Structure formats: structure tokens, C-alpha cells
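Quick check before the chapter quiz. The format below is the same one you will see on the exam, so make sure you can read both the input and the output lines.
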Amino acid sequence: MQNFDVAVVGGGAAGLTCALELKRGNSNISVVVIDSCDRLGKKLAATGNGQGNVSNINLSVRNYHGGGAQLAFNVIGGDYKLPERLFNCLFTADGEGRMYPSGRQASALVDSLMRELSMLGARFIYPATVTEISRFNGAFVLTLSTGCPICAGAVVLACGGKAQRQFGTNGGSYVLAQKLGHTLTPLVPSLVQLRTDTSHIKTLKGIRADCKVRAFSGDRLCGSARGDVIFTDYGVSGNAVFKISSAVAGLDDCSLAIEFLPDVSKEEVERDVRAKLALGYPNSELLSGTLHNQLGRAVIKRAGGDPDKIASTLKNFVLPVTGTLGFDYAQVTRGGIDCADVGEDMQSKLVKNLYLVGEYLDVDGDCGGYNLLWAFASGVRAAKSMLSGGKS
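Here is the expected output.
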């Protein structure tokens, strides 16, 4: 049986940065990273449409959700520049505060991690699944799908959530923490495309528009976002929809109120429509030049020919939400291992020398780099705790 000081279960953003911080802090610590995928850092390499959106300069506790929202914000500590110290490259921020490597290549970040970890002597076992974790004489014994168990003084569960199983995260690893006494909160997909009633958008497939979107559960406003809305045959997608989806995750009786032309007032739209009527425009063209023609016709078909109703519908185009595309299409998971049993050092309050980090926990962030920042920060915090003997 192979013996290691630390076994990191999960070779994603949280697991790899935890391993890196451990080896940077003490190169003599023996660290092994175990992952079920055929390539480590697979999800990180795809983030930000492959461009690597790893943080956001606009950081507040309101960007995090779930039972561990405050924990995440405390662990991050306002340090949105953390990726600059983890990776050997320069970073820049766009107009929305999203931080990217200057080369806009997420795979280069994975290469950076793997290069340094290999140079520092970290070990890797993949593809392999940890099927069971047990305790023996104060240490952990990890049973692997390869049939070769390993022993470790400390274990880091960085297994990810249930979203995007193409990256090896299908939710099956939650059982490892549950068997050690931890509780799993309800899981729902977040940062995901939304299924809606399509009766008013059948002609809009593939059309993109800059909109303000408000989400409601019944009559209660859950949240709002500004950005692209892309109409599809199942409902809506686009960055505004991803942002707002976290507000409706797990809720019933939800609807979206889409506001076209968010920088134009209802009164201006109504005046424009009345002017076109006076010029003899046919009803179907009363929004010509104001909205994309197909969008304009969909609004007019729903509203009828009254200028006030057309303007009102354009500013408040309501679509009932019927569901999401599910975990396979979601960027992150809402829910996870209950953070009530995890300290700010990321150590389990139930099992000494067991650490839980990243999306594995009941924490999810907004779209825009917040989830990766949490993954990095929690991995680093766990490493610092182990380096200090579990006292940080």
C-alpha cells in the first residue's frame, strides 16, 4: 500500500490549487491527486468559453449563495487577485470586472498548474475513482477503482458537484463525505439555460438581444440581470439567463420578465410606434428599426396594435419558466455538503484531518468568475491549514 501525507480527491481547480499550495509551502510533503477523468483540470480548461474567466474584481457576499455563502466570502477575504499568485502569467479585467489571463487561454492555466506540480514532485493517479474512505490507526485508507488502496494522513475532498458530468462530476462522490458523517443538502442545477413556455417565441430561435431580465417566484422578485438573451427552441439562454438562473434555482412558480431596449423608456417606444402609425406603417412593422424585425413582430403579435400595449409588452415580455436543461448543461451545482460542519480552515468539524473544498460544498457563485475564485481560495485555505498543523 502506498503512503502519502495528503491525498487530494479531485483534480479540478480546488484540488490542484490545494496540492500546489501544499508543495509550495513544503516540498517534502508527499501529495497525491486522484481524479476520475482522463485529464486533470478538464473543467478549468473549458471555463469562460475556453478563455479562463477565473475571478471578478466586483466582489461581495451577494455574489454567493447557499448555506456557505458567508463562509465563502470570509475565506476569499476580498482577495480577487489570488489567481495572479497561483499562475505564472498576467491577468486583465474586462468591463464587467471579469478577470482573464492576458492570453485568454484557460488551458494554459492548467498547463501552468501541472508543470509546477510535477516539478515539485506531486503524484497523480488518474483515471481512478475513490470508492470508499475508511479510518485505520488515525490515518485514512482510500479504496480505488484501480484495486490499489492508498493510505494518507489527511484527505481533501475536492470532488466537485453534480453539474457537467462530461468533466467527471456526476454527484457520485458526495457519498464519501456522507459515509463520514456529513450531510448533503438538496441539489439543483445553477448557471444553466432555462426552459420556458415557447408559445410567444417560436419564431425567435437563434436571435440574441441585449436585455434586462427580472426573475419572479410568484409575485416575489428573486433577482435581475443585464446581458444577452438568446432565444431557443426550448426557451432562453445567454449570459443574462445564466446570471438569473441562480436566482430561481430550486424555486417553484417562476417566470422571467424580459425588458427589451433597457436604455430606452416605455414613453420613447410608444412615441416611436405612434409616429410609424401616423406614417401608415402596417401593424407588423411598427417596431421596424427599433427592434430586430422578428423580435418586433413577436412583441406586436402578442400585444396587438395598440401603441401603449406594444410599448408595455416590449418592456415586460413575460415567459413562465418550466424548468432547466438540467445538470449536464449547468455550469455549477446549487447545494452540496452542508457547510455547518466545515470550519473556515476548510477542515471537517466531524473528522479530524478531513478537508472539504470548492463546489463539493453548499456554495455556488454568480456567473463571472466567482465560482472559480471560491474553488481556488478554499483549496489554498485548506493547504495553509494543513501546513500550520490544522491551526489556521
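If your answer matched, good. The first strand starts at residue 2 and ends at 9.
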